[in-house]
Amino acid sequence: MLRFGCPQVVIDRLDPLVNPGQIPSPHMHQIVGGNAFNATMTKGDVATAAGCTTCSFPEDLSNYWTANVYFKAKNGTYKRVPQLGAALQFSDNFSNKMKDGILVYYVSATPGKITVPKPGFRMLSGNPTLRTVDPKMKMQNCYRCYTGPNFGGDTAAPCSDAKLDTQSFPKGACAGGIRSNVLFPTCWDGVNLDSPNHQDHVAYPTSGPANFLAAGSACPSTHPIKIPQLMLEVVWDTTKFNNKADWPTDGSNPFYLSHGDNTGYGQHADYVFGWKDKSLQKAMDTSNCFGAGTCGGLKVQALDAATKCAVKPVVNEDRDGWFAQLPGMAMPMA
């Protein structure tokens, strides 16, 4: 299992998968990884286009992005929720010093039997329009309410414990913040690097989404190629907004994904593959790897070097103030 941190490379209202070329896109994202990220990443190998990456492994020039989370105050205004790094008790020195970004997992239960996607591969996990529970996807996306400071309550694998994890935003204030996890499909048709909805070329095992530490089950015949289990993890620092006196008076949940969802069911994430050469394949073929070590010969860069990698925002708008409405909500969502 590779488990490594990637600080933000940019926060911007762009989505080259769902809204390629559209400036701005309908809602805000936080993006990590290589500095080749732009509004028109519709094809090609980003590993050859990027010159640096925010990820701890410099061989990983991929891009990963998720919706942002916002707090809605009693007066109806919104403010972006900041992030924390990774859980100190489980993380490496790079990740637990991050001030923002995403923790990335690549997991193989069977080293040597997993095929890494080809350059140009991309996919999307989740459905931003979902507002009710999907029982078939209970292991795909989840949230965990940290019960105390310093990631209190982080006692089980993500999306694995019905008492700790929910598909919707947690109810009530979380003393240590909210963790969100998105798991991607693990089966590929082996032919198409993308599909019109960015999902049909990949699939979950025949038993449905599997916990990222489990071996999973067989891939369907339509998608026979097993690919690494990719999971993204974000810790939202909601602690600054835990005063119930500031919450909406109608009792509604005050936390919103940036596309206007305060249920949390619409959590989703995007991925564009951008590993150099065969670096990821070598790592996934290596047994007994755990965390952000030099698995399969991977190098590790310093956090200071990673955070210097950046993309200049394209959309000129405030990202940290209080807003009368969520950025882009006046636009129709594709």
From TrEMBL:
> Which InterPro entries does this one have?
DUF1996 (IPR018535)
Domain named DUF1996 is located at 15-275
Source superkingdom: Eukaryota
Cited Pfam families: DUF1996
Name this polypeptide is given: DUF1996 domain-containing protein
UniProt source species: Pleomassaria siparia CBS 279.74
